Amino acid sequence: HEVYDAIARQWHHTRGRRGVLWPGATQFLQHLPPGSMVADVGCGDGKYFPAIWEAGSFVIGTDISRPLLQTAFPDESDIPDKDLPESRRISDDRRHFRQRPAVAVAD
Q1: What angle do CA 21, 27, 30 make, to 5 degrees?
Q2: Residue 68 neighbours by CB distance under 10 Å
Q3: Strand order of the sheet with strand 88-90?
Q4: Count of domains forming the chain
Q5: 107 pLDDT exceeds 80?
Q6: Nearest Cα to 106, choosing from 40, 13, 27?
Q7: pLDDT tens digits, residue range 81-97?
Q8: The domain that contains 76 carries what CATH number?
Q9: Please, what's the b/e burial string for 85-105 (b: 16 or more CB within 10 A of its CB; e: otherwise)?
Q10: How far is CA 83 from CA 3, 26, 41, 68, 86, in A?
Q11: Greatest pairwise CA separation for the chain in angstroms
């Protein structure tokens, strides 16, 4: 994870913001029931978060690289709909992960 920690800022501003998503992932998200909970394991800079929110789902993002994770949710103003309070980041410290069922896990 040290490599991702070192390149986090560059990754987010060059590759992460391109908006290139795997077609299979976006199709999968479109078939989730609205209000679904998605656990994005290894979320990096959260590039799938907008697609998850667009599908009407909540997201919990976790990543071992704290710098990448911090770009996913730099502050709560990045959450497009304040009615999605369960959308949040979780550090690599699993003690802070409140257990809750998820209907989808994206890795």
Answers
A1: 110
A2: 24
A3: 88-90, 58-62, 37-41, 104-106
A4: 1
A5: no
A6: 40
A7: 444 444 555 544 444 44
A8: 3.40.50.150
A9: eebebbeeeeeeeeeeebebe
A10: 35, 22, 23, 25, 9
A11: 37
Please state the rounded mean pLDDT for residues 98-104. 55
Kindly report the pTM of this predicted structure: 0.66
Closest Cα to residue 9, out of 51, 66, 93, 87? 66
| φ, ψ at 100 (rounded to 5°) | -155, 140
Domain extent at residue 64: 2-106
Residue keyed to tokens 């980041």: 89
